From TrEMBL:
One annotated GO molecular function: zinc ion binding
Organism: Acrocephalus arundinaceus (Great reed-warbler)
Protein name: ZFY21 protein
Segments forming domain FYVE-type: 39-94
Domain of life from the UniProt record: Eukaryota
Xref: SUPFAM superfamilies: FYVE/PHD zinc finger
One Pfam family this sequence matches: ZFYVE21_C
Keywords of the record: Metal-binding, Zinc, Zinc-finger
CDD domains referenced in this protein's UniProt entry, alphabetically: FYVE_ZF21
InterPro entries: FYVE-type_Zinc_Finger (IPR052113), ZFYVE21_C (IPR032031), ZFYVE21_C_sf (IPR038632), Znf_FYVE (IPR000306), Znf_FYVE-rel (IPR017455), Znf_FYVE_PHD (IPR011011), Znf_RING/FYVE/PHD (IPR013083)
Length: 220
């Protein structure tokens, strides 16, 4: 993993982007830049139908590539999934989506990369191992460290089930206490299961573990 984390600055019609040097090292959360609708194919705003002329100029949304007038495409919003260095112009609909994703990048993703401690049970084993679980810096692997070491590629994960407690028939708050993860072993169709359980002892920060599980739920 460590050899492919280098990044480079590139310029596109949409703006400056800081991207991995090797495409294979790109984040599984990343998006490709969309092709822009050609100018000749959009004589009018694709939102409000205003006709473009010398005064009313056309702008392309950096997320969807469609063509809009300034009024319908005036917001400049961060777009971390496309690795833009600065906020970029987006239509109102795309801006809302990007704003929600930015919250994920600013909060949940950092929680996952900082890691948390769990008791991890592999397959049908009745033995568990205390391990620190975190997302790798390039966001491509779930890394588990204890007496054993595992690296699970995010794109190989097929199922994430968050385990909770505290639900009552009449309603009430629930608390994340663990997770069941299923993933494919590279090079085969075999599916492996891992169970993560938040520790009860004083060495395990249960609040941190719950936050990590909540962030993992956002990913799934």
């Amino acid at each position: 993993m460590s050899g492919g984390d280098a990044k480079k600055l590139v310029r596109s019609p949409s703006g400056l982007r800081m991207v991995p040097e090797h495409r294979a090292a790109r984040s599984p959360f990343g998006l490709d830049e969309p092709p822009w609708v050609p100018d000749k194919e959009c004589p009018r705003c694709m939102q409000c139908d205003t006709k473009f002329d010398f005064i009313t100029r056309k702008h392309h949304c950096r997320r969807c590539g469609k063509c809009f007038c300034d009024k319908c495409c005036s917001k400049k919003v961060p777009l971390p999934r496309m690795c833009f260095v600065d906020p970029v112009r987006q239509c109102a609909e795309c801006a809302l989506v990007s704003q929600k994703e930015t919250e994920f990048y600013d909060k949940q993703l950092k929680v996952l990369m900082n890691g948390a401690t769990f008791f991890v049970t592999l397959g049908t084993s009745d033995k568990s191992e205390l391990m620190v679980c975190r997302l790798s810096n390039n966001q491509r692997y779930l890394v588990l460290d204890g007496d054993s070491h595992y690296e699970i590629e995010i794109i190989q994960i097929s199922t994430v089930q968050i385990l909770t407690e505290g639900f009552t028939p009449g309603g009430g708050n629930t608390r994340a206490i663990g997770m069941i993860l299923q993933y494919k072993v590279p090079g085969s169709d075999e599916v492996t299961q891992m169970k993560f359980t938040a520790g009860e002892d004083f060495n395990c920060n249960k609040k941190l573990s719950a936050a990590w599980l909540a962030a993992m739920h956002k990913v799934s």
